[in-house]
């Protein structure tokens, strides 16, 4: 099932009531106590504008539907805009993401007091994998409720269903995986206390399931979060790799090592960062016949290169950072708006370090355009940080124009 975007949904709901756009404006004005015109209804239905959370509540009330149905449709419209901004590429990814958004609606009344077997585990894993792809094109504010609901459901299965000890271990490992998804979304939304607790719960469940690769990944997430709070994450990052090392597949090893590199870079430890990046590349290319877990599906050579560029930008080495970031980001799709906008801020930082002020301003402007409408706090914070560094060059016309647009 494809999730309707908000314009289509509003037209369908209005047609179902037999109201004109003028009638709907009158209903909303009466419900909200705030005047609204037919023109605004038309803009919503054509998606020239999207309803704010204030209006989403009253729209839902006017049609007698759940507010979350309207908010999900608004999220779908945001994703659709990002897809259309790059000429409609990756249409299949968009359809898959919308279908994944609709999945939790069918989950609500599913019983948990039943016998769980291998086929159930396989279906739960497929579902978790589909939902994981939402993170490619949506921010944490939209994905956190979905990911948290999945983890809560799996917890209920463990508590209320009947199953063997082996199945319970698999459920615990799946729960650890889902809690990491939810923790990442909470972190992306700026909910750090939620994220910390979910990472800790994930680690404990992974250890109970004897899934030490997942236990190591939980520690790596926690280390990454520490670096964003101006704390050293090097000790946790080292522990994350050591915990998982004996059982890690090549991609898992590469992921943990690149995060270790980032922890060293943010601590100003260039030699250690470089060593970890080299080990990450070696790990990624190591021969192996073992299947990779789905939770590292996105780890590849480009990912390691992006992390290398970020590390060198953090270490104020623009001659190393700029070439790799320019090369990789040239092929990085704009539909992954949150991630690309973030990575562009490190490229802008490196340009500024190299005294290429005009290039820095243009790159930061591209990042800001991509970040518009993304429900993640991280791009906005990074863009503001780099913009403030640019402010000393306000006499440069391109910088002055950008800072005016960004209201810095």
Can you offer a commentary on this structure?
- The protein is mostly helical and about 400 residues long.
- The protein folds into 3 domains: about 1-85, 434 Repressor (Amino-terminal Domain) (Orthogonal Bundle); about 90-210; about 310-405, no CATH class.
- The protein contains 20 helices and no strands.
- α1 (about 5-15) packs across α5, α9 (about 165-190) runs antiparallel to α10 and α15 (about 300-315) packs antiparallel against α16 (about 320-330).
- The longest helix is centred in the middle third of the chain and has 24 residues, at about 165-190.
- It is flat, with a radius of gyration of 23 Å.
Tally of individual domains: 3
End-to-end gap: 43 Å
Give the uncertain stretches in residue-range form: 86-92
Shape: flat
Q: What Rg do the Cα atoms give?
A: 23 Å
Secondary-structure blueprint:
Layout: H1 6-17, H2 21-32, H3 38-46, H4 53-63, H5 67-85, H6 91-107, H7 118-132, H8 140-160, H9 165-188, H10 192-208, H11 212-228, H12 234-244, H13 250-266, H14 270-284, H15 301-314, H16 318-330, H17 337-353, H18 357-371, H19 377-390, H20 397-406
Helix pairs in contact: 1-5, 2-3, 2-4, 4-5, 5-6, 7-9, 8-9, 9-10, 9-11, 10-11, 11-12, 11-13, 12-13, 13-14, 13-15, 14-15, 15-16, 15-17, 16-17, 17-18, 17-19, 18-19, 18-20
């Amino acid at each position: 099932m494809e999730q309707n975007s908000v314009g289509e949904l509003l037209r369908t709901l209005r047609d179902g009531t037999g109201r004109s756009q003028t009638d709907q404006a009158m209903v909303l004005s009466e419900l909200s106590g705030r005047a609204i015109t037919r023109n605004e209804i038309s803009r919503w239905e054509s998606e020239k504008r999207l309803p704010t959370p204030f209006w989403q509540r009253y729209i839902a009330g006017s049609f007698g539907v759940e507010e979350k149905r309207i908010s999900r449709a608004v999220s779908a419209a945001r994703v659709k805009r990002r897809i259309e901004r790059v000429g409609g590429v990756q249409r299949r990814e968009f359809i898959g993401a919308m279908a994944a958004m609709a999945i939790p609606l069918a989950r609500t009344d599913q019983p948990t007091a039943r016998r769980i077997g291998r086929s159930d585990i396989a279906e739960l894993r497929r579902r978790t994998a589909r939902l994981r792809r939402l993170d490619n094109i949506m921010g944490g504010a939209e994905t956190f409720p979905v990911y948290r609901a999945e983890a809560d459901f799996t917890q209920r299965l463990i508590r209320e269903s009947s199953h063997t000890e082996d199945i319970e271990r698999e459920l615990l490992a799946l729960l650890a995986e889902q809690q990491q998804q939810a923790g990442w979304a909470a972190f992306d939304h700026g909910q750090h206390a939620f994220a910390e607790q979910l990472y800790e719960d994930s680690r404990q469940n992974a250890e109970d399931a004897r899934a030490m690769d997942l236990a190591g990944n939980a520690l790596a997430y926690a280390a990454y979060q520490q670096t964003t709070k101006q704390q050293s994450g090097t000790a946790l990052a080292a522990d994350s790799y050591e915990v998982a090392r004996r059982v890690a597949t090549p991609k898992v090893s590469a992921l943990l090592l690149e995060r270790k590199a980032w922890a060293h870079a943010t601590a100003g430890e260039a030699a250690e960062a470089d060593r970890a990046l080299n080990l990450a590349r070696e790990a990624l290319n190591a021969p192996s016949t073992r299947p990779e877990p789905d939770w590292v599906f996105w780890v590849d050579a480009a990912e390691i290169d992006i992390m290398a560029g970020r590390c060198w930008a953090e270490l104020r080495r623009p001659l190393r950072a700029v070439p790799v970031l320019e090369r990789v980001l040239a092929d990085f799709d704009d539909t992954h708006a949150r991630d690309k906008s973030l990575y562009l801020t490190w490229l802008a930082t490196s340009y500024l370090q190299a005294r290429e002020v005009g290039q820095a301003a243009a790159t930061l402007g591209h990042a800001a355009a991509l970040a518009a409408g993304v429900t993640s706090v991280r791009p906005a914070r990074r863009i503001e940080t780099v913009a403030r560094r640019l402010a000393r060059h306000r006499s440069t016309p391109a910088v002055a124009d950008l800072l005016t647009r960004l209201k810095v």
